[in-house]
Structures are given as structure tokens and as C-alpha cells.
Specification:
The chain has helices spanning about 1-35, 40-50, 55-70, 80-95, 100-110, 115-130, 135-160, 170-200, 205-220, 225-245. It has ten helices and no strands.
């Protein structure tokens, strides 16, 4: 009996020490992170995970710090840091498949490295897990514009159409090929941005990209009158977007980390497009 009690006491003391080490490492890690020392933050959060391998909170902080370190790294270091960040985020998702921050970080890292289809797939998982993720819908709309814009620009270049030519595209064959391949996606892009705006009517960046979607849609119009109508919709979206963006309204605020709470998303959403002529 005494041996059993002694063994139990040792286990309790060991558990208490491990918990204290985890809390100390989490505290040190968040302090380093908030000071901008992401490398040290990663080291401290790794210590927290070692002290308590069952702690989801420690793994969430480690993943967040690895993502932030990757995003702030020089091009020379990015490949290795991206691999480590993806592994850390995947580790969180293995334990918490609907973790909205982890899903967003996967999407943001793929978008940052130009993997549009992978970024869209992660955004779809994010919005499925969290239907109120305005940034997920917004980013899906941005990705759709990027894909359509690139496809149209490449087709126009191949057909010898000048970028300055007014819409719609005069080459019927080029226009019809693009209509069959792009119009469905453009319509989905509008829907994604509408969902983001339904969640935040003052989301100026979403209006700005909806304006751009209408402009690529105008390239594919069947007549100059249809193109003019689509550009008028774009002008209306752009006017509203400028009014909102000039107020300085932010789509996302970055909070300081706390050692006792899961971290907020560290990866930024895509910024609004530059103004025409800027």
C-alpha cells in the first residue's frame, strides 16, 4: 500500500512539474512572439509540446509561431520554414480537424506560395467548418479573380489582342473558348464575395475584388452593350469600396498572444487590389 501511495505521489509530482514547465514555456513563447522574436517563440513552444505532448494549446501556439516565422522569412529560408510550418499546422489538424485558424493558415501559406488550387481547397474546408468565415469566402473570390484574370490575359496575348483594347474581346473564337471555361467560375467568385459581404457589409476589399470580377466578365460579354452594363456594375462596386477603404476600416485585427488562450490567425488575408493607375 505504501509503495502504491509513493508511486502515485511521484506521478502527481511529475505531472505537476510537467504542467509548470508547459505553462512557463507557453508564457516565454508568447512573450517572445509578441516582441517579434519568432525563432525564440518557436523554441519555447517546442519546449511546451515536449513538456506536455497532449496539450493541443501548445501545438496550436507552435504552429502559429512557425507560420509567422515563415511569412516573415527571407526568400533563402522560406522553403525549409514552409515545410516546418505545414507540418506543425497539419499536426494541429490531426487532433482538431475543424480548427479554423489551422485551416486558414494552410490556405494562406498555399496562397502565399502561388498554389491557387490548393489554397482554394483549404478555403473550402475552412468555410465548411466555419460558415461564418468571411475571410474564407473573400479569399475564394480573390482566387477566382486571379485565375480568370490570368487565363484571359494569356488568351488575349496568344491571340495578339492588345491589353488596351476595350471589352468585349473582338475575336469570337477566343471569346467563346474563354466564356465556356471561365464564366461558371466567375459566377462562383461573385457568390463567394457576396457571402463575405453578407457577413460584413462594410468589407471594402470584397467589394474591390467584386469590381474586378465584373471587369473580367465584361471582357467575355457578347456585345458592347453587355460589356458596358457589366463595367457599370464594376464602377458601382469600386465607388463603394473606395468609400469604405478610405475610412480606414480594417478587415482583420491582430491581437497579442496570451499563454492561456489559443492564438488568433497570424496569416493576413489578401490585401485589396491597388487603385487603377497606381
Amino acid at each position: 500500500m505504501n509503495r502504491s501511495r509513493g508511486a502515485l505521489l511521484i506521478l502527481l509530482l511529475f505531472g505537476a512539474a510537467a504542467a509548470a514547465n508547459t505553462q512557463e514555456s507557453l508564457k516565454n513563447g508568447t512573450t517572445a512572439y509578441n516582441a517579434g522574436n519568432f525563432a525564440l517563440a518557436v523554441e519555447q513552444f517546442e519546449q511546451a509540446v515536449k513538456a506536455d505532448p497532449q496539450s493541443l494549446l501548445a501545438r496550436q501556439h507552435l504552429a502559429n509561431a512557425r507560420v509567422r516565422r515563415f511569412l516573415s522569412a527571407s526568400p533563402f529560408d522560406r522553403v525549409a520554414l514552409a515545410k516546418a510550418a505545414r507540418a506543425a499546422v497539419a499536426d494541429v489538424l490531426a487532433r482538431s480537424p475543424k480548427d479554423a485558424v489551422a485551416l486558414w493558415h494552410m490556405a494562406a501559406m498555399e496562397l502565399d506560395t502561388g498554389n491557387l488550387s490548393e489554397a482554394a481547397a483549404w478555403c473550402q474546408k475552412l468555410t465548411a467548418a466555419n460558415p461564418k468565415s468571411k475571410n474564407g469566402y473573400y479569399t475564394l473570390g480573390v482566387i477566382q479573380w486571379m485565375e480568370s484574370y490570368q487565363a484571359i490575359a494569356a488568351a488575349k496575348k496568344k491571340a495578339g489582342i492588345l491589353p488596351s483594347d476595350p471589352p468585349p474581346i473582338k475575336d469570337v473564337v477566343t471569346r467563346e473558348v474563354l466564356r465556356s471555361s471561365q464564366l461558371k467560375g466567375i459566377a462562383e467568385g461573385h457568390k463567394f464575395l457576396e457571402k463575405a459581404l453578407a457577413l460584413d457589409a462594410e468589407f471594402g476589399a470584397a467589394l474591390a475584388y467584386d469590381n474586378l470580377l465584373y471587369r473580367v466578365e465584361a471582357e467575355l460579354a457578347n456585345s458592347p452593350a453587355e460589356a458596358q452594363a457589366l463595367n457599370a456594375r464594376a464602377d458601382d462596386r469600386l465607388k463603394k469600396a473606395r468609400a469604405l477603404l478610405e475610412t480606414g476600416k480594417k478587415t482583420e485585427t491582430q491581437a497579442y498572444l496570451r499563454p492561456d488562450e489559443p492564438p488568433p490567425a497570424t496569416a493576413p488575408v489578401p490585401p485589396p487590389p491597388p487603385r487603377p493607375g497606381s
